[in-house]
Structure formats: C-alpha cells, structure tokens
# Entry
Amino acid sequence: MEGISNGIPANNCSESEQLVKPYVPPDVARELVTRLYGLAVQSIKELVSYDDKNFHIKVLEDYDNANIRELCPHGYILKVLNAKDSQCESIIDAQNAVLNHLTTNKTVTCPRPILNKGGKFKSLEKLYGKSTEGDEPVSSERPYAFYIVRLYAFIPGKLLYGKSCPVHVWYKVGLLCGTLDKALKDFHHPGYKQVDSLWSLKQIPNLVKYLHVIKGPKRKALINEVIQAFSDEVMPQYDKLPKGIIHGDFNEQNILLEEQANQETAGKDYNVVGILDFGDSHYSCYVFEVSIAIMYMMFEDTVDPLAVGGHVLAGYLKEWKLTDLELSLIKCCVAGRFAQSLTLGEYSYSLDPGNEYLMTSAKKGWSLLENFWRVPKEELYSTWKEIISCYKSGGK
# Structure
C-alpha cells in the first residue's frame, strides 16, 4: 500500500515518540493469530510493506474458530495496519466489503477476509513499541498505540514485480484492471465517503507542499511542470469524469501472476490471476485507475516504456470504455502519478531514512518520467492507437 502516515500520539507517548508503523515481532504475530483467530501457527514469514506489517502465516490442522469452516490450504496473510489508518474504522469496513463483494461474486481473484473468533473482520489491538533496553518485559513505561488487525486467505502466485514477461501480459493487466472497475461499478459503501488520501490523483496539486524534499533544481522543475499541467488540464474537467470505486494502486507489487510454459518459445510465460492490497481503494475517476496501471507497468523491462500504455489500454478498453475526454487526459494523469510517487516517496524516506522500499519508484522513475513527459502527446497517442488496433485485428 502506498500511504503516508504522519502518526498519532499513543496514549502514553510524546509526539516525538509516536508509533505509526507497528512493531510486531514473530512471537506477537503468533499470539495475535492464535488469540484472535484460534489458529495454531506452523510458520511465520514477514512480507515487505510500506507502512503496515504483513505476514504469511501457515497453520496446523487443529483450530478453534467456529467462523472458519475449512482451513485455507495455502495459509493466511496477517495484516497489522499502521496507527494512523487504524483510526479510520469505517474505511477498513469499506475495504473488507469490497473484498467480500468480489470474492462472493467470483469476478476478480483477491484476498478473502477471514472472520475472527468474535465474528468480526477486524479488531483493534493495543501493541507496544520496541524496547530500547533489549528484550525487557512489557511494562507500563513502554509506549504503545492501537492497531487494526485483520486476516486474509493467502492467494498463491508470483508478484509481477521483476518478472520478464511477454508483452501480452501488459494487455492482461489492462484486462484485469477493466474487469475490476466493471465489477465494482454498482458497488457503494458509506465508508468511502471519508477517504481523502494523499495518493488520490486529485491531490496532485497539493504536491507543491512537498517540493522541498526534491533534490536538484532540474528534478524540482520537472515535478512542478507536471503539477501545473495537471492543475490546468485535468482538475477543471474533474466533475465531468465518470467515477466509481477504484483500486487506486494498480502496481507491479500488487498484481499476481501464475507461471506457465510458453509453447512457442519453450520459455516462461505468465497469466495474470489476481490483485492484492485494496488499502488505497477509494471513490474516484476511472481514468485515474488505468493511468496508474500504465505508469507502474512502465517500470518493467520487457517492452518499450512508451509503448506500454497501448498494451494496457487495449486490455482495459475491452472490458471498460473510456470517453474521448478521459482518453485525452491519460498522458497528464500518468505523468501526475509519476510526480506523486517520486515526491511522496522522497518525503516518506526523509521521515524513515534507510527504508529502501520507499524509494522503489525512484530507481528508474526519474528517467522514465522525463522521457515520457518530453514525448509529444500526438506521437505517444499514435503509438498507443496502433497497438490497440493490432489487438483488435488479432495481431497480438
């Protein structure tokens, strides 16, 4: 999840000691799973996360939870939400409702929420911060905060991130993205009325508040130029753009693949099988959704980054149509997401130096944005249209 949390004061913490990202050592994760879900833990593996704590949990056959009919064969994901987002329980209810809607209707493969022993999809737990004195016992002197704890069925597969995929995989990514938007077109939940994340594309004009973290005048000027273009071209049209519940973070680390043999090349091929992490889902413009997907797919090396949009759009448009106005804004929206990811990544890193996960986009993102932004819109769209036409004629 790409989120920024500035923290909340824990009940016995000073502001400088705020506990945003939870401290969850393996023994605490094991205790949460056993106490809340009645599962006997066999193994625990911590997963990479932006500002939460996630674990892949495998369990033994014995369990004590009347709300679980049968065990998930591939295990579970334990998610301990950061302290700031844990204050927004109605938003978490909305996210769980989306996942239940999709898994019940079997339209898109995504994590299925698991009921705890109390019959709830979440609980708010008091967790202590890391001791500065080693492994001292928990005491009233230790800082603490409250965190929402959830459990999901684990979906087997490989993340798209870092895979050498044939170009048709980007088409399948677009297809999944369009299928998801189509599946959620009639979904509503009051919790989404409260979502106002910095990672929503409509917040791009507010990036000017964070420009001070950008190093170098050339990069700062580039980001400022994109922000201004988005403010001038996209925001005046915002009320006219079709909207619904979108995933909001359709990136390469949230897309699941299934490996399969390629009959023609005798090499590896992949099928796109699912989408993870609805932590940034919100009510917004559909054109933002596909633009976010295009931006993140440009980071993969198996296709010309400037051509990626054509492949993703070809798949997306097969399931979900865009108006001429929406299509005309895609370049600016893609660039806006680049600016957002690079700027907020730098800002988060300034708060948590050493957390290299926060800088994932920066490694290639600056050169990608510069090259993408300098290509004339007419030239870019001509390339995309040619690729889309090729799919329509059966050429891909």
About this structure: Residues 1-18 have pLDDT under 50 and may be disordered. DSSP finds nine helices and ten strands in the chain. The first helix runs from residue 26 to 37.
